[in-house]
Amino acid sequence: MSVQEIHGIFQFADDFFPEEDGVNVFVLPDYVPKTVFPQWYLEEQDDPSSVFKARLDHLYYTGKYDEACELGHEHINIYCTGPLAWAMGRYLVRFAQIREDFRLDELRAICLTSPFWVAHFENDEEVRRVLSRAILIREIVELLAEGDSVDSLVACTRTLPTEYYEPYKTFAFRFVVDDYMRKICLEEQVALINKFSFMPLLGPVSMTDAKVTFSIHCDAVAGRNYLGRLIGPGSRDLIDRFNLKKRGYLGTTSMDSELSLVMCNLACVSSGNLVYDPFVGTGSLLCTSAFFGGFPIGSDIDGRQMRGSDGRSIQSNMRQYNVENRFIGGCVFDILQHPWRDGFLVDAILTDPPYGVRAGAKKIGCKYESPPSYSCRLSAEETAERYPKTIPYEMVDLAQDLHQFALKFLRIGGRLVYWYPMEINEDESRSTKDQLLSVLPKVDGIEIVSVIFQQCRLFDRWLVTFERTC
Ligand SMILES: C[S@@+](CC[C@H](N)C(=O)[O-])C[C@H]1O[C@@H](n2cnc3c(N)ncnc32)[C@H](O)[C@@H]1O
């Protein structure tokens, strides 16, 4: 057995000491003086699934570790004394004040009414990896101290061992204040920052060239205050990069840049992935997929959308974003009459299917019982065959077809992400999750991962994520 995971972290009062009997294993991060924090205690975990897991990579074990191994303890609880939050790889995620319903799902795939969420990451590098993709995260800071009041935050900060500051001691540094739901004026901010002047930082203060930024976050709603060391900002700058207003080629239904980026994250699009949009339109989702390293393919029943005009097309957008070499291409066909051979597999399908209000879905059919005669020499049957008419395509059928398509052409583990529009109820109430679940297709092997609600003016729509499981 190897002790690989922490199951639950509890802080006890400073006078807490582990039981004398039983298995006591002391675990200390190597940078914490044992004299300061000697009280770590591990014991068997009854219900490991009920508590969160974090890795113990950067910790080492002392005490009765061998004894614990002999007893075959698979799961362990760590009880610690003192403010060891920072030693446990805790980080504070600060979300952007937008699209609250999407937050947790976005983070799960690559968080809550409060824009703060305490998360566990292995190390700063892992945090940076997440930040390089996360659209709905404003920033992540290493969580150093927290408290219900400013005084308790300061008290908690005072217990940080001086060793913590060692790597940053001589760096140019700065403090910033992040006030959530209560405006803290400049004077107050300065007074707040000055409360932390005891921190042993010897470098110069620099607002412009700081090598380390400490941030004080005050959440007036939850009544919590945090002190953190900034690891970095999220990737919200990408929203502006893909801003529709700056895009060369657009259509009436081009997908908003922020949502295109979030959809790529939900679909776990990553380098080398083959990504397919079967209702590609002007290719917004292809642009962001290619940006994240994917190789996108699109198709649409209407070739005009893809081709564009006056030198502006999906291709020119790809060029604009410098991802032209990743774009595999576009094909014109009805998704129900697709040319894909058996065995063709894509890593992700993400799409914005057509729907009534903006772009009614059509499928190839025959509108007329007996086709009209055209001024050409084709027979009526030939006309019907060669110049097929389109007929309305209901969303329930479209979704069903999409799921069947995914079952055949999505690789196992691949994701299907799309928008499902819902009408507002007759009593003008908004659609509910239960209503959505009752209409979503149930196809074995295509399992639901998440549903996210978005209220539009005339209708509702749900961003649904599925995964192919078998
Ligand atoms: C909402 S738009 C997609 C917009 C696209 N995401 C963009 O950024 O421009 C839906 C697209 O589905 C296409 N479409 C409608 N019925 C289709 C079908 N049966 N097969 C393939 N494409 C279809 C429409 O021509 C339209 O371009």
Automatic annotation (TrEMBL):
The protein's organism comes out as Paramicrosporidium saccamoebae
User: Which GO biological process categories is it annotated with?
Assistant: methylation; tRNA processing
What is the name listed in the Swiss-Prot or TrEMBL entry for this protein?
A: tRNA (guanine(10)-N(2))-methyltransferase
PROSITE patterns of this UniProt entry? N6_MTASE, SAM_MT_TRM11
Q: Which family does it belong to?
A: Belongs to the class I-like SAM-binding methyltransferase superfamily. TRM11 methyltransferase family.
In what residue span(s) does the tRNA (guanine(10)-N(2))-methyltransferase TRMT11 N-terminal domain sit?
90-217
GO terms under cellular component: cytoplasm; tRNA methyltransferase complex
Domain Ribosomal RNA large subunit methyltransferase K/L-like methyltransferase intervals: 246-363
